[in-house]
Amino acid sequence: MYKFHPTPNNVVTGIIKKHLPRKTIHVLEPSVGDGALINGICLKKNSLLAVDLDPSKVSYIKNFFSGHKLEVICANFLELNFSEEKFDLVICNPPFDGKNCITYQGATLPLEAAFLLKSISLCKDNGRLIFVLPGSVVQGSRLSKFREMLCQQVQLKYSYKLSKFVFTDIEGEFSVLIFDKNVKPVPTVFISQSGYKIVGEVGKVTDTWSFDAEEIHAEVELKSKLLSSEFRYVEFDSVFNVTRGKVTSDYNSAGHFHTTNVALQSKCSLSDAVKSSHKIDNPYLICFGDFYIKRVSRGLCDSLSIYSGDTQPFTDCIIKITPKQNFDKASMFFSLMVLLQDTNVKNILQKGSGAKYLDVRRLKKLQLPIGLENEFKIYYLKFIDGNHEDRIEIARKINLLLSNKKIPKVISSEKLQVKTA
Up-side HSE of residue 249: CA atoms within 13 Å toward CB? Predict the structure, then answer.
């Protein structure tokens, strides 16, 4: 049985109620639960069909809403045959099934995505769909093709990013999405705690067709910062190699580097890291002085560090970052840590809920600020001599300073070469 998580009243009254059609309508609720969503609908003038797999929920809804124009069916929504029936509004907080997927219409999809797909087919032209969906459906590369396909069938009109723990005891991130079916293209309004952004074409903001308001806000803000900047930037992928470890089991066994070993690392100064000159052909070995970041972590962007152990294989929970050419390692590490402390960058790179995962694909496309060591010399010297916590704090301070400065123009990686003795 899938877990039931009732929609909070503040979501119903504060967001969903605002987007209900005003005319008399025929409504479908594919996963009615305790009726929280249909509570916001006037059942005296509208007809409603509610579905739920749980007999106890169906019995409750029939008793609670008796006397209204409401039909309740106990069935699996995805298996239910609606014949030719269509609806003006489909409103749904589908059951959540974690990371599990099902096969629906020949595709492997999360349960929530399958609910949305079937609901679109049951919605009338010019009808509306209002869905509460988890971050796993709203953003990330795994369902990018699915979201692109959705945008060919419906128009995403509004996306609301809900606050954390909006569902009691659930750490995941959720959004309320409002779609209109077969209408002329309209701008999408993305609303989060950071503010709102109006976007003309969803697919042009991120290459994953993200519907996540916080991510969209961060991408737009970061692009604006680059365009208005007089500093210098270079594309991350042009100066760094990025390698995910190959060890996929026995994480805690001796002989390879894993996230649980990070705390056991001896302190490694930036000065020592700069002096290291390991050149090993095997990219799946991590060496003294290499940069690394955790692939999954609650404080993901804070985990950028310098490896100080013996050469050994590393697990798939570690991302190794090494300069492609003979760049000054200390200044590059300084710039990279400053970049990862940018709030917008964090919202772009850190995906998922709870322990976030790193969007490595997007990391490679970031623009890295160059020359910060010259702009912030005193901070840079403190950064060189500081410990890990000191470096994070300095990187955060520099981000505050940069927010009040004009900065960068993109430059080529060739200009970053340093001379060797």
Answer: 0
Last residue of a domain, one of 181, 216, 251: 216
Total tally of structural domains belonging to the chain = 2
Please say whether the beta carbons of 205 and 220 come within 8 A.
yes
| Domain edge (last residue) among 156, 190, 216 | 216
CATH of the domain at 372: 3.90.220.20
The answer on 246 and 203 residing in a single domain is no
Query: Do 296 and 200 reside in the same domain of the chain?
Result: no
Q: Which of 269, 272, 289, 302 is nearest to 385 (CA)?
A: 269
CATH number at residue 174: 3.40.50.150
pLDDT by position in tens, the chain (length 421): 466 677 888 888 889 989 998 887 899 999 999 888 888 787 667 889 999 999 999 999 999 888 778 899 999 999 999 988 999 999 999 988 777 888 998 889 999 999 999 999 999 999 999 999 999 999 999 999 999 999 999 999 999 999 887 777 777 889 999 999 988 888 999 999 889 999 999 999 999 999 999 999 999 999 888 877 777 889 999 999 999 999 887 777 778 898 877 766 656 667 776 666 666 778 899 998 899 999 998 889 999 999 988 899 999 999 999 988 777 889 999 999 999 999 999 999 998 877 789 999 999 999 998 889 999 999 999 999 898 899 999 999 998 888 765 444 433 444 444 333 3
| Residue 200 shares a structural domain with residue 244 | no
Beta strands in 260-403 (DSSP E): 285-286, 291-294, 296-297, 305-306, 312-313, 318-323, 350-351, 356-358, 367-370
**Residue 293, domain member (yes or no):** yes
Residue 409 domain-assigned?
A: no
Query: In 10 A of CB 3, how many CB atoms?
Result: 10
In which domain, by residue range, is 275 found? 233-400
pTM over 0.90: no
